[in-house]
Write a structure and sequence with these properties.
The structure is a homotrimer. Chain A is built from twelve helices and 19 strands. Chain A is an alpha/beta fold. In chain A, α1 crosses α5 and α7 crosses α9. Chain A starts with 9 loop residues before the first helix and ends with a strand.
């Protein structure tokens, strides 16, 4: 991909991702089950995914793959037979991984199975109980307040049976075996920014990268959070040595500013690359340190795995009130924000692919740029064009220790301009690429 | 002491120290003499001190122990025979270490032996002349202005004779020979915050620590400033290799905020510990760099001794106007401030004793905490309790390089919470202590 | 020079430099030619320069010495025969290095050879075309607007012939062969702050340093910018190993605050020295990072040369609007600013010559300063004089690792005070110089 710059039409890009999100949004996903399969089937239309099924009961490090969960319907009916809570209206209404239930019970008994958000009376919370058998309904505070009957019919038509945990994986072999890992999670039901925005961004990124032959290899994981990451890591331990670094992709669709959560070490190459992409974007951004109670970087950066994983988001999970509620919906995300995030991921890949260390072949004083047509012939006023300034930076710092990224950071110039400058100097025989 | 937290009643603690200070305050101390002996005898009621006497004339590094100084009485009488300056009213009235004098002299001659503070007309300055024979009176500016007679009777009934320099030492043998040094100075006469506050805090600290068997050894020095530190260092050079680090204790009784003066290197373990104690206290504090014209850390940190000595104070000597005057008295200090300082010293010892490096025994991804009852079973909303957050921090960073203190600093959580978390994980077989 | 402090009369100093500048200002200089020779002849009255001539066509690294350029006269006459642009009024009127021309041409044709500054209608720009044969006139915007004739007589009575590039060099052999490099450029015609201010400062500095026998050797270069630096470096590659560090001297005559441009590495000894000089000056100053499109530090710091070169200026080239125009004239600079800059260069040399590492010969605790008359005998009030504070700093940190400069930086005391303190301790046998 050296020299190739993706420059996709932002409108097209954003629309593609937003449409895909609309298609995926209604599906009731969980950490296992047909919702995940259906989601992967849709992604596979765009990316030739390898779909993997791991048997229930398989030991993955300290964990066991749980039984597979599927659900057909769920409701609470009042005494008039009216569905006052209906899974068909929102799959968030069911405590995710609820065991089956079908009975008439008193409101008193039902109450301990109801979850609502008093501070946001119109929103349904998103809750789950994967590893402790339980059932429940997540409802709005308004629904809760209107429940005046003494008895209700409750039904959750779900089943928990030995089956599989399903995930998708896509690998692009580059010139080098060294690979970059992108990981998103697809276990959340109808929520958009958390989880789904990462899924649609990675789908499109994988689709685009698949059209070229990159220098590095790239791996894309579409997995359930936590148990999926643990499963993949356990089943692919022999792959880990090739992973140079990676990013966990989520919360990339809202209109907040970009936030980069650094790797555990905080000063790895991927950290420098993402920070430079954000600086070069010319837009505001936040940096935050690694936090061991975040998303799957918790697993990737655990002491026995020790991958360098950052996370490039917009507003991080937990920092916006709609997080893990029904308000994290199609209105919270927009195609412009998705496109902007996508562009930043492309820019990260651009630096990954195009960074390098060069050697000034004329290291004693400056080469005479004018003779080579690289310098304005009327000197005196230092009205250098941008790229001319870059010539001096690249020549002066290409001593075999500074990479183009280092030079771009130090000079404050955009990486892409420094790369272009290096290309020009290379053409004129003034540089040699050493790494 | 692993796991033991001192939690003394602050009121009792403060009262004990304040009462002891009231008892010690009137004694006329100096760098040698019976005032020091009397002070040590009182301390010995609480702590089984070892009292050491060093002969006058003994060479201690570049210094010689001076003659011993004692004083019975001193006054200036006017022509009416009235004591207008009286040692019995304040022992500060005598230039400390004054040679005997007893004569009638002209005011003119006397004037060069009088010291007052024009800016604080009610305060008596505290001055000394240890190494150049001299005599003098320290008086208030008001007293000076009222001296209208032409002649005065002056009497200082002191003596300077070959004798001893006296100091007290208390050592607690811990499980390890590695020791922590606490040093205060007891050479000041009736001043409270400077000098005496450190003496009473260390008396109580030694008394409390003496009730347990700590991991580290602890040494407490009650010595005259400068010459005492030099003497102890000279006579105990073979002990120095065991000293891990230490603190000079003074100015701990006023109601100002805590101030920590760092060690010479500034980033030693004791520096990290004290800074964390101050952060965890939730109260304002100041940090300041090592200064070679401070107290006994000057000697402890001299290039040929090179101990790591910080100083945890409240308002430092020299930063409050009452310093080295009669206004540094029982009203400047209070039992609450003493108790607060004491608590911080205990917290320092708590970290010293309880810090350690642990190894996550399940380093590949997270262990399944839910199965072990360590994690709420309804997931989704990240309303983790404080200690749950800590679980992730301790597990993720216990790779054999981060100590609990490092983890507490990095996470921003209190050291005591991180320690508690490590204990829980240890109980569940998820951690092993390695150091 | 150990112990010697230059303390020249600032008024005399400033006047000397300003008068020299007035003498040099009218000369039409370029990168070659008689203007440079005339300038060096004047400098030689004050400093026994070695004047070097390098043949046109000589290969110097990637460059060739160009033909020598000289000029006698130049003008534009209107149809009335009136000189509307006259080289005799300002040598900036000619595009520096213009080839000869003598013809009547239409205004239309002439226009592409005219340069003016629309934003500063009274100023003549300073422009050159060294390496591409061209001719042109630099005029004020007002002159341009008054050119209403259709035809003009243009004459540039210059010549470009094989000849020499000329530069001056002065070397002072010190006790050590290690040398400090000062470099200024004398290729600019009638501009003052850029270029000439550096020339007059270095002339005076060389003149003063020539009166003593310094510890280090000093080299002063009076060269044309870029091609001169490249020539000197190429012809003196074997000298480079002796160069410890150096400064490029320019823009030292305006009344702006001092600006130090750091070396490429940014934390070399010369960087610490200049920053300390600026701090000790008690005046405001700016620091800025190395920039590879600056002056001759571009050549000195190129990867194959790699000298440590900073630049101590006042307002840097490019940061003031008069830069490279006729407004960078004798009014823009003043003798006080020149004297202030000169003093700072002397202070740099003072630290270079007097810095050193000492060893405390009494490293265990403090030596008894009182016995040696180095400490006030009435102790207690910490009203230490400045130098007494320094005694403790020098003694405590003279462990063989801290230099006097390190101690001065760490203590915040002036370098000269720390040096004085070290001298006193040396006299008393308390220190030994180790480096």
């Amino acid at each position: 991909m050296t020299g190739i710059i993706f420059n996709p039409d932002p409108e097209k890009t954003g629309d593609f991702m937003y449409c895909l999100m609309k298609e995926l949004y209604p599906i009731c996903r969980s950490i296992t089950g047909d919702g995940v399969r259906k989601t992967l089937t849709i992604i596979k239309k765009h990316v030739p995914l390898n779909i993997v099924e791991v048997h229930s009961g398989t030991q993955v490090f300290d964990w066991k793959i749980p039984k597979e969960w599927n659900i057909k319907d769920a409701y609470i009916k009042n005494l008039s037979g009216e569905r006052i809570v209906d899974f068909n209206k929102s799959n968030l209404h069911v405590l995710n991984y609820s065991i089956p239930v079908n009975k008439k019970i008193s409101f008193e008994e039902l109450r301990s199975h109801l979850y609502a958000l008093p501070d946001y009376p119109d929103w349904i919370p998103y809750l789950s109980s994967y590893y402790q058998e339980n059932w429940g309904f997540c409802i709005t505070q308004n629904q809760l307040q209107n429940m005046n009957d003494q008895y209700y019919d409750v039904c959750i038509d779900s089943n928990l049976k030995s089956g599989f945990l399903t995930y998708g994986e896509f690998f692009i072999q580059g010139e080098l075996n060294e690979e970059i890992l992108f990981s998103c999670y697809l276990c959340h039901p109808s929520v958009c920014n958390d989880s789904l925005s990462g899924v649609v961004l990675l789908t499109y990124l994988a689709h685009e990268l698949n059209t070229i032959k990159p220098k590095y290899s790239y791996r894309f994981l579409f997995i359930p959070e936590t148990i999926g990451a643990i499963s993949w890591l356990c089943l692919n331990e022999n792959c880990l040595k090739n992973i140079k670094f990676g990013l966990v992709v989520t919360c990339v669709g809202d209109n907040g500013i970009s936030t980069y959560q650094k790797t555990k070490q905080g000063d790895n190459l991927i950290d420098k690359i993402v920070e430079k992409v954000l600086i070069d974007s010319g837009k505001d951004f936040n940096l935050r340190n690694f936090n061991p109670s975040g998303s799957d970087e918790r697993q990737y950066s655990s002491p026995g795995i020790n991958l360098q994983m950052g996370s490039l988001m917009r507003t991080p999970y937990g920092d916006y009130p709609e997080y893990h509620t029904s308000a994290d919906n199609l209105e919270l995300v927009d195609s412009n924000s998705l496109a902007d995030s996508f562009k930043k991921y492309l820019d990260v890949i651009y630096i990954v692919e195009n960074n390098g260390i060069y050697l000034n072949l004329n290291p004693k004083c400056e080469p005479q740029l004018g003779r080579r047509g690289l310098y304005d012939m009327i000197g005196g006023r230092r009205e250098l064009l941008f790229d001319k300034e870059g010539l001096f930076w690249v020549l002066n710092f290409s001593d075999g220790t500074y990479s183009l990224l280092d030079i771009a950071i130090r000079s404050g110039m955009k990486f892409s301009d420094i790369k272009l400058t290096a290309d020009i100097l290379l053409e004129h025989g003034l540089l040699r690429k050493v790494l």
